[in-house]
Amino acid sequence: DVVMTQSPLSLPVTLGQPASISCRSSQSLVHSDGNTYLTWFQQRPGQSPRRLIYKVSNRDSGVPDRFSGSGSGTDYTLKISRVEAEDVGVYYCMQDTQWPWTFGQGTKVEIK
Amino acid sequence: EVQLVESGGGLVQPGGSLTLSCAGSGFTFSSYWMSWVRQPPGKGLERVANIKPDGSEKSYVDSVKGRFTISRDNAKNSLYLQMNSLRAEDTAVYYCATVARAVAGGDYWGQGTLVTVSS
Question: For residue A83, how far is the Cα from the chain centroid?
């Protein structure tokens, strides 16, 4: 199985400041169809997960443009340009290139 | 409005069985791959099973293979997860979710249903 490793696991941030979460895969996430299926989810406290980014860098409908995804090969990053209070929660990366699709451990974002 | 509503969770003894259901509305259920994802209390996410729109292809994570069966009834806009030989480590909130790997929008999740395996 592809192992997804996130860092840091806890990220205290100041409102209005940027934040960055790293996700590393144990093998390349390039699919045979040429796409790279790396997805980012946000899970706010007490809520179901919500997809933010798909295929590395594509923002989902309704996701604020302060969220951006980047990366290639085995290294990927989610960036929040200016953290807002509503961004508090746990962020997960997930690879959906190879079954079983696997998640990172999650990064808890909290306000300092 | 898109809705996925899970039901069927509860307390079950080790070795017991349970069937989860998920009712979809507000979208073309029969066009989507569907998935069950679970989350043990206070822990991370695990995608347990996927099923193709017509039900002809199913995939399972190794930890549930041979014990869980995913199925769907497109006429009823419903997804199911039959869980047998349940273990304590199957205790989790179970979410049903659409699969929309390559398109914007279309990634929907239910509110989850809690399964507790304990004597």
Answer: 15
Give the DSSP H/E element, type plus range, for residue B78: strand B78-83
d(CA B61, CA B68): 10
Please indicate whether, in this complex, the C-beta atoms of B45 and A101 are within 8 angstroms of each other: no
Query: What's the angle, vertex CA B29, arms to CA B91 and CA B62, rounded to 5?
Result: 35
Which tens digit of pLDDT belongs to each residue from B13-52?
999 999 999 999 999 999 999 999 999 999 999 999 999 9
User: Helix, strand, coil: what percent of chain B each, to 5?
Assistant: 10, 50, 40
On chain A, the residues whose CB falls within 8 A of the CB of B37 are 49
| DSSP-assigned letters across all residues of chain A | ---EEEE-SEEEE-TTS-EEEEEEESS--B-TTS-B-EEEEEE-TTS--EEEEETTTEEPTT--TTEEEEEETTEEEEEESS--GGG-EEEEEEE-SSSSPEE---EEEEE-
